Amino acid sequence: NNAPVGRTHFDELSGRLTLGNGVQHYRQLKLSAGVLSASGYLDIDATRDLDGHLQATLEVRPGVVPLVVSGSLGTPTLRVGR
Questions:
Q1: Which of 35, 42, 72, 76 could pair with 59 as two cysteines, CB 3.0-4.6 Å apart?
Q2: Residue 2: left if φ>0, alpha if ψ -120 to 50, beta else—which one?
Q3: In 10 A of CB 42, how many CB atoms?
Q4: pLDDT digits over 16-75, tens only?
Q5: What is the 3-state secondary structure (H, E, C) of 19-46?
Q6: Confidence check: pLDDT of 8 > 90
Q7: How many Cβ atoms from other residues are within 10 Å of residue 40's Cβ?
Q8: Tell me: the pLDDT tens digits for 69-81?
Q9: Rounded to an integer, what distance in angstroms lies between the CA atom of residue 40 and that of residue 78?
Q10: Burial of 51 (0-12, 13-18, 19+ CB in 10 A)
């Protein structure tokens, strides 16, 4: 695996966290990093599985890309949604 390893720097990362029945609910997520911005939500359940949706925008390209977050904390998956 030749994936780069290191830090990801964000200009802004914000949201609201609530806890209930062993599930972490991240709402009103907002991320910006240079020409990339995204917003959405993410849930992490008691078994550390992920479920979420993001809307990503690149300033260099018009339109919004819907993204689906799934997998687990150890092996997260990000794919283009509908």
A1: 35
A2: alpha
A3: 18
A4: 999 999 999 999 999 999 888 999 999 999 999 999 999 999 888 778 889 999 999 999
A5: EECCEEEEEEEEEEECCEEEEEEEEECC
A6: no
A7: 20
A8: 999 999 999 899 8
A9: 13
A10: middle
pLDDT range class, residue 9, cuts 50, 70, 90: confident
Distance CA 22, CA 66 (A): 27
Q: Which amino acid appears at position 82 of this protein?
A: R
**What's the CA gap between 52 and 75, in Å, rounded?**
14
Residue type, 48: R
Token digits of residue 60:
């260099």
Beta-bridge mates of residue 12: 32
Per the CB < 8 A criterion, the answer to whether 11 and 32 are in contact is: yes
